Amino acid sequence: MKKLFENDYKLNPNDGPNSKDLFSRLNITCGYWLSFDNIDVAFIEKNGEYKLSTSQNVTVKQSQKNFRTAFEKATEEHKNKFVSIVEEEIPDGNPSIHDDISDDVRDEIHRENIDDNLEFNDRVIQFHRDGKFTEQEARELVGITVPKGQPDERIKYLKVERQKLKTDFDTESDDERQDIFREALEIIDQNIDDARLEMRKHPESEEGVHRVREKVCEDVRTRFEKF
Questions:
Q1: What is the per-residue pLDDT across 140-175, written as a single tens digit (0 to 9) for each?
Q2: Taking burial as the number of CB atoms within 10 A of a residue's CB, which of 49, 83, 92, 115 is the most buried?
């Protein structure tokens, strides 16, 4: 379907309900026809590529429209997956390469986030020692570096803390405290993205997406240099 609709993504029936619906309505008939809802909508050429049927039959035309609509819904669902970014950067790669690079990038970003969390943790503790934060304030700020639970639970907790910190940042008059709140918001965004990557989902923040793209390109370049 990638070449049929000139699409970079390799859709997966496990991506979600729309993807599952699309694949459940597809079938191969007579060895070389692709059917959608039991109507032949495309055929397989000898080189293995699919081409849409040129039939002017009203039923076929309507089924092709339904096929495209279902495909577009499944594509939007797939774009919510982490691997979709890898596929955009390496459109000719096979699924195995995409998965390997996804794992490498996810692990590297996770390690970097751990380092950032530890550094921020130390800064907060030092600010507490210097009298810039109360014990409760310091405890709450340190808490965003070590959220507990499953990825979805951590995301829920971090989003609540993000709203509180936005208010603190907007109302704070002390420059040093405001800098810490700004950094805390960045840490929260990173940790939300990290939890989403753990679930193999698309990063939430624009910075997270940019970061993944850079890591993918670095990984590909490193692999190429090895050969």
A1: 999 999 999 999 999 999 999 999 999 999 999 999
A2: 83
For residue 201 the two structure tokens come to 């989902």
Angle at 218 between CA 217 and CA 224, to 5 degrees: 90
Q: Edge to edge, what strands does the sheet with 33-36 contain?
A: 26-29, 33-36, 39-44, 50-52
The residue type at 134: T
Task: Identify whether the C-beta of residue 86 lies closer than 8 Å to the C-beta of residue 95.
Answer: no
Which residues lie below 8 Å from residue 109, measured CB to CB, with a gap of 6+? 193, 194, 197, 211, 212, 215
Q: How far apart are CA 161 and CA 145, in angstroms?
A: 11
For the chain, give the number of residues: 227
Q: What is the pLDDT of residues 60-77, one digit of tens each?
A: 999 999 999 999 999 999
Q: What is the pTM of this model?
A: 0.85
